[in-house]
Design a protein that fits this description.
Blueprint (H helix, E strand, L loop, with lengths): L14 E4 L8 E7 L3 H6 L2 E3 L13 E8 L2 E12 L2 E7 L2 H13 L3 E2 L3 H7 L3 H12 L3 H11 L2 H14 L3 H13 L1 H5 L5 E6 L6 H9 L17 E7 L2 E7 L9 H14 L4 E7 L6 H9 L4 E5 L16 E2 L8 H12 L14 H15 L3 H13 L4 H8 L7
Parallel strand pairs: 1-7, 8-10, 8-11, 11-12, 12-13
Antiparallel strand pairs: 1-2, 2-6, 3-4, 4-5, 5-6, 9-10
Helix pairs in contact: 4-5, 6-7, 6-14, 7-13, 13-14, 14-15
Length: 407
């Protein structure tokens, strides 16, 4: 059921770990933990006050400068949580973090991937999982949502639901679970973007539309049918939500060879995405093939591109859609708003309790089914076991099976 929780005092060495994601960011955090954490950091950190780090009360935020063999380094902030736990907050970027780690390793610290620190500092494995998701979050908004879970938002909500079940308040418990169920998609997309595929006939301007939505040229754009023969995907973020846009081959009946392979991949992608944009040329007539494509993609957003060449009467005889132009930018803002409304109909608040793993999703769905079947004792037992596991409740839940869930 997992490794036992680590006690930092039992570690043979003082360790240094990067606690924030690799790559450029506003701030990066390095954790130093173990018997000589304060002494190790004190070798290199010079508080602006002139006092030594060990003379400053724990919990105080201390401004100063990092000094090593290469000379005075950058200004940074240090917080000594305890004598065996010190956090160094520096300017974001791999070079700054590496310089701090290298200095500490030179003086005897061992590099730790961060898991030992997480396990020793948190009594709640759900917080550990939230920290890991926060590190992998695609956007700042997602990271802040995971920070709330790290500080116990999901744990507290599940504890409240368990108390309601034990008190016989099944409707209160059901309402709490239904609220969590609403946020499952949001939580799962903190580390994975929503996937949006553009489908449509050749020369409808799908690639140009992707470029316009991204604000830079990424797709291959050509005015002849058949140019896009493979899937072209790229990432962006709107209003703090990560999105992956996938340009696909134009759909036409007489395609052959590589072009047909591209069309096959487009249809496969249609089955695996969160949203489909059906892109048509607004100034062209509505054909039987267009109608069949529209009917084969229920729930898709319809886009009539090249609105700078289109009269409103041109699209009056077909399904309602959004008029866009990659030349004038008409309709692009509306299209993005419509996509976000489909993907995140009701955004959660920054401190909302949110499930964020497949294991948590399975748990919530199973609990709702047990309540629907009035198997209240089974529901209490299921949630109690999940919350009582001392190592990793997700692993326990998956290994225990889903004997209550209807496939």
């Amino acid at each position: 059921m997992g490794e036992p929780r680590v006690d930092v005092s039992s570690l043979p060495e003082t360790r240094v770990a990067r606690l924030t994601a690799v790559g450029r960011s506003a701030v990066a955090t390095v954790g130093v933990f173990g018997p000589s954490a304060t002494e190790q950091v004190s070798q290199y950190f010079r508080p602006a006050s002139g006092r030594r780090l060990e003379e400053i009360d724990c919990g105080k935020i201390v401004f100063g400068r990092w000094v090593s063999a290469s000379g005075p380094g950058e200004e940074l902030v240090v917080c000594r949580q305890r004598s065996d736990h010190v956090e160094v907050h520096c300017h974001g970027g791999d070079a700054a973090v590496q310089k701090i780690q290298d200095a500490l390793v030179t003086s005897g610290c061992a590099v730790d991937p961060g898991q030992s620190w997480l396990t020793s500092e948190s009594q709640d494995p759900l917080s550990i999982a939230a920290w890991e998701s926060m590190i992998d979050a695609r956007t700042r908004r997602g990271a802040l949502l995971m920070l709330a879970q790290y500080h116990g938002a999901l744990r507290h909500r599940l504890d409240e639901i368990l108390l309601a079940m034990r008190a016989g308040q099944q409707e209160v418990a059901r309402a709490g679970l239904q609220q969590l169920d609403r946020w499952i998609d949001v939580g799962l997309h903190v580390t994975q973007p929503w996937k949006v595929a553009l489908l449509g006939p050749p020369n409808a301007g799908k690639s140009s539309l992707v470029n316009a939505l991204l604000g830079f040229h990424r797709s291959i754009v050509h005015d002849q049918p058949g140019t896009t023969r493979d899937l072209v995907s790229t990432h962006t973020a709107w209003d703090g939500w990560p999105v992956q846009l996938m340009d696909t081959a134009g759909l036409r009946d007489d395609a052959k060879g590589l072009e047909q392979d591209g069309i096959n991949k487009a249809w496969q992608q249609h089955e695996e995405v969160d949203l489909v944009l059906l892109v048509f040329e607004g100034q062209l007539g509505w054909s039987e093939n267009d109608q069949r494509l529209y009917e084969s993609c229920p729930g898709a957003l319809v886009v009539y591109n090249k609105s700078d060449l289109t009269d409103a009467a041109d699209v009056s005889d077909r399904p309602t859609g959004i008029l866009t132009s990659t030349v004038t930018d008409e309709g692009l803002k509306v299209l993005i708003e419509k996509m976000l409304a489909h993907l995140v109909p009701e955004p959660p608040g920054p401190t909302e309790a949110i499930p964020f793993t497949e294991g948590q999703k399975l748990l919530i769905r199973e609990l709702l089914q047990l309540l629907d079947k009035e198997q209240f004792e089974d529901a209490v037992g299921c949630l109690d076991r999940f919350l009582s596991v001392e190592t990793n409740p997700e692993i326990m839940y998956r290994s225990a099976g889903r004997h209550h869930v209807d496939d």
